[in-house]
UniProtKB/TrEMBL annotation:
InterPro entries assigned to the protein according to its UniProt record, in alphabetical order: DUF2264_C (IPR049237), DUF2264_N (IPR049349), UCP014753 (IPR016624)
Top-level taxon of the source organism: Eukaryota
Record's protein name: DUF2264 domain-containing protein
Annotated ranges, domain DUF2264: 14-361, 369-631
Organism: Orbilia blumenaviensis
């Protein structure tokens, strides 16, 4: 059975198009509701939490969109079932009672979209309950004394109370104030909040679209009449953040694949949805037309990803295809429906400037092609046909699955998505793309950068450079410099590594990856010939060309590293289920300097362009190693 994409064929231009997209995603959930409508069961895979909590996810997360749909004056035939489900799930005497939340319970996460639904569609979700049911909901939301992770989770308790307050019901105002005051300690400047206290270094989509910025803006709109000072503060942070966050998107609508929870898919544009919801006018060049384009182009891109859906039209765990390797241990089959928060603009009226403005293209001519972002520790560039970032600061503060791949790689792209490890005892299963991997021997694990011991952004001769030190193995120390592309060689970035080791090690450094399927018969790529798909490895370089683009890597030093193209483990890449990665393989006895040139050129969306015959021109035009870097090597 083929996947069924409910968004396919929707032009996603008008408010009514957007509403139709919303209901088309809600409709496939109806057959999967439990008999009492309090849960949605979309699959059999497990999570770190219990099955009831997983069913609650399937029920609650679609409410992000349903509440906005109803608040905007639209109707949906399944609404009554979801209202009934809320009454049953919070009723201790009902067979489908969800159970009271315990400390750090997933149930508290799902109180957030439920609270939003109560606040925005109270005439349906609150008024549709009996007095006894209302009391049950309030009791269920009483999590004042429950332990919560010291992260964005605190917002979920805020929204549980917010939903009650907007309906004139008793709520814990003091707890709300304490939570929001504590959340303020996560703020770092330039609009950015860390996903946790100061000693965490995690600023991914949770800092903006998935949670913190998003919920700040929803709160500013919903509670702005009673908490005007705090609400305006949140809006001002959004204005600052937007000027940085716009750099994470490409002209074609795609966002840079970076960080955890990317199974949330189009939640990556949630921040732009919240900007419209909260009626926040942004600084130039971010007009309403630009904001509209950022949101709708991303949805259109997802409308062309059929494998992101099941044959029945429900979202899958994975990015663009079903993939458990990239998932996190908190991803149930209902988890991807956090993506529905991007439908918040349905709540604003048809005469809002978000809807009346003409959609505008990505503001490429109005923003710098390369920019250094202090807070997240990223250098983002729009050169070379894709948007990608260089990274040297981020890490996850707990043992997240594949954390080294989600946060520790050198580069993350909108066109060449990262890969996650499927194992560690073979190089091909350790996801060596966009990173430097080391091992002590044939039977030892391959290790890469998981966290930085030190990190900084240095401006050297007018160019921002990321500098980090890291320790992949005991006795092995690496200092890395990441240099973004220049406008005369836009498809290349430069890496340098100074490696010292107490014992001999093997190394492998990878470029981006491309599809390992050639045109015509979809077989594995063979030796490259001009104008064709293929792969090539030699003394000091390796490259691969296929339907998704051309990528390569060159040793610009004198270490004698060998080039090789390696088949990555199947399903390790977020975007493609079969990929190949050009690598440089070497050994280090005690000390070495690696100078590396990394190439990436995405295939154009217009296949009529015979780019396979012309890509070699940009590949042949290689960047020069900066003099300041050469001096370090020769010192």
């Amino acid at each position: 059975m083929k996947p069924f994409n409910p968004l396919a064929g929707n032009p996603l231009k008008t408010r009514d198009d957007f509403a139709k997209a919303c209901t088309s995603l809600l409709d496939p959930l109806i057959p999967n509701l439990t008999p009492g409508y309090s849960g949605v069961k979309l699959g059999e895979t497990g999570t770190r939490y219990d099955e009831t909590a997983a069913l609650i996810e399937g029920y609650a997360r679609p409410l992000w969109a349903l509440a906005a749909l109803l608040a905007g004056g639209y109707q949906w035939e399944g609404t009554k079932k979801f209202v009934e489900g809320l009454g049953n799930g919070t009723d201790p005497e009902h067979d489908e009672y969800w159970g009271a939340a315990l400390d750090t319970d997933q149930r508290m996460v799902e109180m957030c979209p439920i609270g939003f639904a109560l606040a925005m569609a109270g005439d349906r979700f609150w008024d549709g309950l009996s007095e006894r049911q209302k009391a049950n909901v309030a009791k269920y939301f009483d999590i004042t004394e429950k332990e919560m992770p010291n992260t964005n989770w605190l917002w979920f308790r805020v929204f549980a109370n917010l939903g009650l307050s907007k309906n004139g019901y008793k709520y814990d105002h003091e707890r709300m104030e304490k939570d929001m005051n504590h959340l303020d300690t996560f703020y770092r400047g330039e609009g950015w909040s860390n996903d946790g206290p100061r000693d965490y270094t995690q600023m991914c989509y949770y800092s903006g679209s998935f949670a913190i910025q998003y919920l700040q803006l929803l709160y500013a709109k919903i509670a702005g009449d009673v908490d005007a000072v705090r609400s305006e503060k949140f809006k001002e942070r959004a204005r600052l953040y937007a000027l940085d966050f716009v750099h994470y998107f490409h002209e074609d609508g795609r966002a840079i694949a970076f960080g955890r929870s990317l199974t949330y898919k189009f939640a990556m544009v949630g921040f732009w949805a919240a900007v419209a919801f909260a009626d926040v006018e942004l600084p130039a060049p971010l007009t309403w037309g630009v904001v509209k384009g950022l949101l709708l182009r991303n949805l259109r891109w997802w409308s062309n990803q059929p494998a992101a859906f099941t044959p029945s039209g429900t979202l899958t765990i994975g990015y663009t295809y079903p993939n458990q390797f990239m998932s996190d241990n908190y991803n149930s089959p209902g988890s991807p429906y956090w993506a529905m928060l991007s439908f918040a603009p349905l709540a604003v009226p048809a005469n809002h400037p978000f809807w009346t403005s003409t959609e505008e293209p990505f503001p490429s001519l109005s923003i710098p092609p390369t920019v250094a972002l202090k807070q997240p520790g990223h250098i983002v560039t729009h050169l070379g046909g894709h948007t990608f970032l260089l990274s040297s600061k981020q890490e996850c503060h707990y043992p997240l699955r594949a954390a080294e791949a989600k946060y520790g790689k050198f580069a993350y792209s909108s066109a060449f998505a990262y890969s996650v490890p499927t194992g560690s005892y073979s190089l091909w299963s350790s996801a060596p793309d966009s990173t430097l991997s080391v091992t002590y021997g044939d039977d030892a694990e391959w290790r890469t950068r998981k966290k930085c011991d030190t990190d900084s952004i240095e401006v050297i001769e007018g160019t921002p450079v990321l500098v980090s030190t890291w320790t992949p193995l005991e006795g092995v120390s690496v200092r890395t410099w990441l240099i973004p592309p220049s406008e005369d060689t836009p498809n290349w970035h430069i890496r340098a590594h100074h490696i010292t080791t107490a014992r001999p090690i093997k190394t492998a450094e990878g470029s981006f990856t491309v599809s390992n399927e050639r045109r015509g018969d979809n077989r594995e790529l063979e030796i490259y010939s001009e104008g064709q798909d293929g792969r090539f490895g030699s003394t000091n370089e390796a490259f691969a060309v296929s339907r998704t683009g051309a990528v390569g890597i060159i040793d610009a030093g004198t270490t004698g590293r060998m080039g090789e193209t390696m088949n990555m483990d199947s399903n390790s890449n977020l975007l493609l289920n079969r990929t190949v990665c050009p690598l440089l393989l070497g050994t280090v006895e005690k000390e070495a300097w690696y100078l590396t040139l990394v190439y990436g050129l995405p295939a154009p969306t217009d296949e009529a362009e015979d780019w396979r015959k012309s890509w070699g021109k940009s590949y042949a035009r290689k960047p020069k190693i900066p003099e300041w870097l050469l001096k370090k090597v020769t010192c």
